[in-house]
Design brief:
heterodimer; A: mainly alpha; 68% helix; globular; B: alpha/beta; Rossmann fold; Coagulation Factor XIII, Chain A, domain 1; six-stranded mixed β-sheet; five-stranded mixed β-sheet; 11 helices; 24% helix; 31% strand
Amino acid sequence: MAPERAVAPSVVVVTPPRGWAALNLRDLWAHRDLVYFLAWRDVKVRYAQASIGVAWAVLQPLLMMVVFTVFLGRLAKVPSDGIPYPVFAFSGLLPWTYFSNATGTATESLVSSSNLVSKVYFPRLAIPLAALLSWLPDLLVATGMLIMMMLAYGLMPAWTTVLLPVFALYALLAASSVSVWLSALNVAYRDVRYAVPFLIQLWLFATPVVYPASLVPGRFRALFGLNPMAGVVEGFRWGLLGRGHPPWALMGVSAAVALVLLVGGLYHFRRVEHGFADVI
Amino acid sequence: MSSEALHSAIRVEGLGKQYRLGASTGGRASYGSLREDLLRSVRRRERAPEVDRTFWALRNVSFAIQPGERVGIIGRNGAGKSTLLKLLARITAPTEGRAELRGRVGSLLEVGTGFHAELSGRDNILLSGAILGMRRSEIQAKTDEIVEFAGVEAFLDTPVKRYSSGMYLRLAFAVAAHLEPDILLVDEVLAVGDADFQKKCLGRMEDIGESGRTVVFVSHSMPSVLRLCERVILLDRGGLVADGNAQEVLRTYLDSGLGSAAERHWETPELAPGDEVARLRSVRVRDDRGVVTEELDIRRPVSLELEYWHMRDDEDLRPSANLHVTNEDGVVLFATSDFNNHRWRETRRTPGVVRATCHIPGNFLAEGRFFVLAAISTYNPTRVHALEADAVSFHVVDRSTGDGVRGEYANAWPGVVRPMLDWSIIEPKPIPLSGADRQLG
């Protein structure tokens, strides 16, 4: 019944891997249904037996916002570019929470799917990619919460809020750039799984989540952009709140760094993926 | 290159796969820690490179399979069957050689690949279908058919973790059975499930073969291979030993043990299947005169003899010898254990070579070929120490001439066993026949 069979059958060639191979993203595209179902499974399973379900998507950044508001906003009086500190922190914590959750699960994703990797063929990239996508609905839900919070503070969302999907993609890009490396490395070196949570914790403070980028002296600002998440967080905040100048330079540098990391990571992934089933 | 070779469904040329042996993982490549790899690379620079402990799981294997052929791949444990299948399924990459597969490839290396316990039956159909390579539209179109095949209509929205293991397996296989690939690669999946369902699965696979698709089937189960495949490839220690007509290759396979299919013998415990508690030493089929033989008279008793090394003195572990006897259709006739001997059951086990013999009476088995699975296990706590499927096989021949179960009857006699049973008969008392009866008669 499959219409594919009407055309000349495709030929699959199995040969030893030789050094650097082409990315073959077409194969990944052919498996897009699989990516979709894996992501859908992750979302569904995540809240399957949780009594408050999807509220977890909001609760995590919300509680962190409360903590930071008390300690940094009230006690340490960290500036927040003229935005009420809770809104400021929450708007930064949303893309950050996405990044930290997505990167964490994507890093572990291949190892926790070892039964799939060792039993069936598909482009291995589908697994971390699905893990990254599976956190986007959470980001969406939490953003809804942010908008309500802004309205409560008398702040109107900026027109650029309609660009939210673009900012989400930008966050996805940053998370992918790191996860493609970490997920592949974690298959061979289980050290990665211990290092990553710690790394992400530190990373939070290298990113303008709970303090504004304007706090960083101008001459270090470009250097700051080397952190792919710096541009994401500042961009997301600007997109929703519309305060100040759009952080083009920061976003540009961050996006460029993320792209370079991603492409390098994809080639690395491709180089090692044929061995996953043997070592996982 | 002949035109025939051009149109092979699968063409394999000099395929080989080398594994690096991990220090602790025995047989599998190991994953390391970053530190170990760094140390290794430093050491390499400092001294002569260490000799890698590697082995070839598969080497120099070549064959071609035509579209529509159903080919079985057999061999003992470690022969390279699963490696070959994994290479063809692109799960792992070869070290040398190449393989070409024409058409859509579906692989079925385990039942329930990608099933998630928390998801409902319906959701798992979607997920598992996608993982096995079906398109979303295809799965949706076949969901009803799959549900019906599995017979789980009533539980479709129940998480599969609440399924009985039988239901779980049926649903899992049903999804896989509705794949419509040009080439289907199957590994051992039929080793599970009840006999009826196995039959259904085999039937489904036969349909697949008949509809022009190519099936490559790896199995320990000789009966299923015989039923399903007209051609068999025999692997041994990573190489191709025989390739051809199923019956002939099976013959070679059964003879590849030690001279006879009726005897398997392992020289040392290191070579034998088993763990640190017990290892198989030999399995033999003997006739009533004690001769090791493969062909047995249906009227005479058969002895199945199992020897094993019991290596650990442990009060809690009481290894028992077990035998399963299976016929050509894959039906397990019976399973039996040495604890049926009550005196032995109470005996404290001490290390050494144990010989346990099971006596099957004459006039009990049916005609045909039987396969014997030999295992050593402790029942409480449950622990399987050693297991060898198809350890030996034998052939029962009915040469009875009126003195057997079927008496003078010469045609096929039904039944998976052919026991000589006691009958009690009340003989007719002479009835005085009346005149009226006589007239009727």
